[in-house]
């Protein structure tokens, strides 16, 4: 079974305006509301790609109820720890450019962390757990490491899609799969990239640190895949971007869906890139049909 863990889920409130006038009244031309948070997005895309998962993490209040109801409509199994306070609302403002304002999220107490860790203790060697998204400011920054330790003790595979100190700390635990974008990779090593060769060098360093599979995404410029044996590159398919929120999460789901169904590495990587782009070209997350159309446009090259 695949488990996703979203410590700080969100209701994503997508607001379209023709033109943003700062300091004035703006009227939306369209608004959309989605259950969000990186792990939840991975669960939603996995389901669309025909793979079941269980969504773990913390939810609370009317926004938490919305998330659980929406995931229920999509037949996604939820096993959240319920907390007081409202799950955050993240504003995704579309006014030509995409601007995001992510909420802080409710307080998670020590007792809630204990309840989550208890759920992690039921994982087995047949399971994969995806740790995705930011750590709530009320939690200690090593919570992902604690979850990772519990999962690894039980030989479950750990997948990491986070950034900053949480990503840095988790790499030492040699996860099965990590998907930083190129900016997160640069931040990890306190550098900035001017050329693709630098992305390759630093991506390979993650493999040397013990990560089994690494995908470094580069938005419209495609992505690299690294493991001990190969470096692969794929350009992103061309299309009209409608919403890049969740594109990275869709890549994680696409890779896992293909990998767990026994596809080759090249195929899994192509499927991952196609899933990211299919989401970028959709208002909500990708559909399986769109992924399978786009995968034919993804050419995987070996370096
Ligand atoms: N403009 C685009 N055109 C085509 N494909 C895109 C575009 N933006 C993103 N993608 C696809 O989505 C993948 C992931 O994008 P990106 O690098 O932006 O991830 P991310 O920063 O983790 O995203 P997020 O945090 O919003 O989920 C890319 O590798 C690509 O396949
Ligand atoms: O604040 P975090 O946890 O870093 O990111 C949360 C978030 O921006 O990530 C998802 C897209 O990847 C959205 O659904 C959600 O709003």
TrEMBL record:
According to its UniProt record, the EC number is 2.7.1.144
**What GO MF terms are annotated?**
1-phosphofructokinase activity; ATP binding; tagatose-6-phosphate kinase activity
Where are the bilayer-spanning segments? none
Q: Which is an annotated Pfam family here?
A: PfkB
Signal peptide span: none
* UniProt entry keywords in alphabetical sequence: ATP-binding, Kinase, Lactose metabolism, Nucleotide-binding, Transferase
EC class (word): transferase
Domain of life, per UniProt, equals: Bacteria
Per the record, its GO cellular-component terms are: cytosol
Which SUPFAM superfamilies does the record match to this protein?
A: Ribokinase-like
GO process annotations (BP): carbohydrate catabolic process; D-tagatose 6-phosphate catabolic process; lactose metabolic process; small molecule metabolic process
Biological function: Catalyzes the ATP-dependent phosphorylation of fructose-l-phosphate to fructose-l,6-bisphosphate.
Can you say what this protein is called?
Tagatose-6-phosphate kinase
The species is Parageobacillus caldoxylosilyticus NBRC 107762
**Gene name of the record:** fruK
């Amino acid at each position: 079974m695949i488990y996703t863990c979203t410590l700080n889920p969100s209701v994503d409130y997508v607001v379209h305006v023709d033109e943003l006038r700062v300091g004035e009244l703006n009227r939306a031309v369209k608004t959309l509301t989605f259950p969000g948070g990186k792990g939840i997005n991975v669960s939603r895309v996995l389901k669309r790609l025909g793979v079941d998962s269980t969504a773990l993490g913390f939810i609370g209040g009317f926004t938490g109820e919305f998330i659980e109801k929406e995931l229920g409509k999509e037949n996604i199994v939820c096993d959240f720890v319920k907390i007081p306070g409202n799950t955050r609302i993240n504003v995704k403002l579309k006014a030509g450019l995409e601007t995001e304002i992510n909420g802080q999220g409710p307080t998670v107490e020590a007792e809630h962390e204990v309840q989550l860790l208890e759920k992690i203790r039921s994982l087995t060697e047949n399971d994969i757990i995806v740790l995705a998204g930011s750590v709530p400011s009320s939690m200690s920054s090593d919570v992902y490491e604690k979850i990772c330790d519990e999962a690894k003790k039980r030989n479950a595979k750990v997948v990491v899609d986070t950034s900053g100190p949480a990503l840095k700390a988790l790499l030492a635990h040699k996860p099965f799969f990590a998907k930083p974008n190129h900016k997160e990779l640069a931040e990890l090593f306190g550098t900035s990239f001017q050329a693709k060769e630098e992305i390759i060098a630093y991506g390979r360093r993650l493999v040397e640190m013990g990560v089994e599979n690494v995908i470094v995404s580069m938005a419209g410029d495609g992505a690299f895949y690294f493991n001990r044996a190969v470096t692969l590159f794929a350009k992103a398919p061309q299309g009209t971007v409608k919403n890049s929120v969740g594109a990275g999460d869709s890549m994680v789901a696409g890779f896992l869906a293909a990998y767990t169904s026994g596809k080759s590495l090249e195929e899994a990587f192509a499927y991952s890139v196609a899933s990211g782009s299919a989401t970028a070209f959709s208002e909500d997350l990708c559909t399986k049909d769109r992924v399978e159309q786009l995968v034919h446009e993804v050419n995987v090259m070996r370096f």
